[in-house]
Design goal:
By secondary structure, the protein is of the alpha/beta class. It contains 15 helices and 20 strands.
């Protein structure tokens, strides 16, 4: 069991080290046993995969094992985004899906996600059951089914997924985008989006489009397949030099988004989620207490202010899109988002979708062009901030000895009533790590990394000068506990 450890969203590890065919086979057997024990083996399993080294071989190998159990297996003939894989589960009414991907991790990694029949991330309960099955198979290896036992007639190769495109057309105003005639650039970062997003761009384009890094490269050009600001330098250059209206990007499996606006400004996920949420309410007309917005404890409280303005309920969850997905299934959720770049909206899958997020941003820029003199996304956000307030935030990753990690978190749990520059800590939340809430609406969250000797510290303040003071206070407080 020490070689296979599930994280917040599946199992990822280094290819040819721990992530190998033997260990993958044990995980696939464990997932198969979970489905069978839950009596959910009715309609079959979909398998998708990204552009990483050996992904298609890992996917085919997994299909053969599942077929040996009697599952009907639907296997993509090409790399496919995680959100499309999740959509196919719901659209085809399947028992679940496997996605071979390590998302935005370095190129030496690969991984596997199990997507249950509801089309979203596996819950903690499901993951625990799969881990229990892992222990069973590690102790009873003779019970494992192998790829050599494959029942080939149970495996169906799928080449096209038209219903995902049909669904996206219902979510996004393609006609308005085309009519606006935007110049759009997109960076695929060599990921699984290459087989889906450019096709959509062709349909919505009313002007020039430019698609970067639109081919498979298992090394991702020597960078992380992560649409962060430092990885979008090439996209920013084209936006500014060629005067494009917007540039968008996807991560390795296209479930996370990135954007550079016409002014060359990178908008982080906190800003993007807030901007999309405000647009859905103010332009699309969503409002009222029956609707909910869901954010994690680490996501900006600008979401809270938008909720207040449009009388929408707010739900705060632990970090991880699986918690947002659970609320989307239970409630009428307009938007769910997390600061690490996950987002989905009402009427869509309970899984983060970078494709949908980027198309929403393109739709918003189309609206800005036709209704607000083509101001940039950052100018639009500034207008929102003028109305609802500015929010300054940052995440810091601080290295700490493993033996000190839990003690540091426990120390901060006792800080209620303490002050930061005469501003009292009015409340402390412990649903995920420890979150300090201050009387001036500033907050800080400390969480332990599950894989590294790190404490992640998130800080937000509505006042820039206090933000800088608060940041130094948190750094000093953590260092004093080492």
């Amino acid at each position: 069991m020490n070689k296979i450890k599930f994280g917040t969203d599946g199992w990822r590890d280094i290819i040819a080290d721990n992530f190998n065919f033997e260990n993958l086979g044990i995980v696939v057997n464990s997932i198969a046993r979970h489905i069978i024990e839950k009596k959910e083996n009715k309609n079959g399993i979909f398998i998708g995969y990204d552009n990483r080294f050996l992904s298609e071989e890992f996917a085919s190998f997994s299909a053969k094992i599942l077929s040996a159990y009697g599952f009907k297996v639907f296997l993509s003939d090409k790399s496919i985004p995680t959100p499309v894989t999740a959509f196919n589960v719901l659209d085809m009414k399947l028992d679940g899906a496997l996605m071979i991907t390590a998302s935005h991790n370095p190129s030496k990694y690969n991984g596997i996600k199990f997507i249950p029949d509801y089309g979203g991330p596996a819950t903690d309960l499901i993951t625990s059951d799969i881990e229990e099955n892992l222990r069973f198979f590690l102790d009873n290896r003779d019970a494992l089914r192998s790829s050599s036992e494959s029942i080939d007639e149970n495996i169906v190769i799928l080449t096209e997924f038209p219903t995902y495109y049909e669904h996206i057309r219902k979510l996004i105003d393609f006609a308005s985008i085309k009519k606006a005639g935007l110049k759009i650039a997109a960076d695929m970062l060599y990921g699984a989006g290459i087989n889906v997003f450019p096709k959509i761009l062709d349909e919505i384009s009313g002007n020039e489009t430019r698609v970067l890094n639109n081919k498979r490269d298992a090394l991702f050009g020597g960078k992380l397949p992560d649409p962060s600001e430092k990885n979008l330098v090439e996209l920013k250059k084209i936006i500014l030099e060629k005067r494009f209206d917007i540039g968008v990007a996807l991560d390795g499996d296209a479930d996370r988004f990135g954007v550079i606006d016409s002014a060359g400004v990178f908008l982080n996920p906190n800003k993007v989620i807030s901007l999309i949420f405000y647009y859905l309410c103010s332009v699309k007309g969503y409002k009222g207490k029956d609707l909910k917005a869901v954010r994690t404890v680490a996501t900006t409280h600008l979401i809270d202010e938008i909720c207040k303005k449009f009388d929408i309920g707010l739900i705060e969850t632990p970090v991880g899109f699986k918690y947002i997905a659970a609320e989307m299934i239970k409630n009428d959720v307009l938007i769910g988002g997390e600061e690490s770049g996950g987002l989905s909206i009402k009427g869509h899958i309970p899984e983060k979708d970078g494709i949908a997020a980027n198309l929403l941003l393109i739709e918003i820029q189309s609206y800005l062009k036709t209704h607000l003199d083509n101001i940039s996304l950052s100018e639009y956000l500034n207008n929102i901030n003028k109305e609802l307030g500015y929010f300054f935030n940052e995440r810091m990753d601080m290295e700490v000895p493993r033996e000190k990690m839990v003690g540091i978190i426990d120390s901060f749990k006792k800080m209620k009533g303490s002050s930061v520059e005469n501003i009292k800590i009015s409340n402390i939340l412990t649903k995920d790590g420890v979150k300090l809430l201050l009387e001036n609406d500033a907050w800080a969250l400390l969480r332990l990394s599950g894989t590294e000797p790190l404490i992640r510290c998130y800080i937000e303040s509505r006042d820039e000068s206090f933000f800088n003071v608060f940041k130094q206070y948190m750094i000093k407080a953590i260092k004093n506990l080492l």
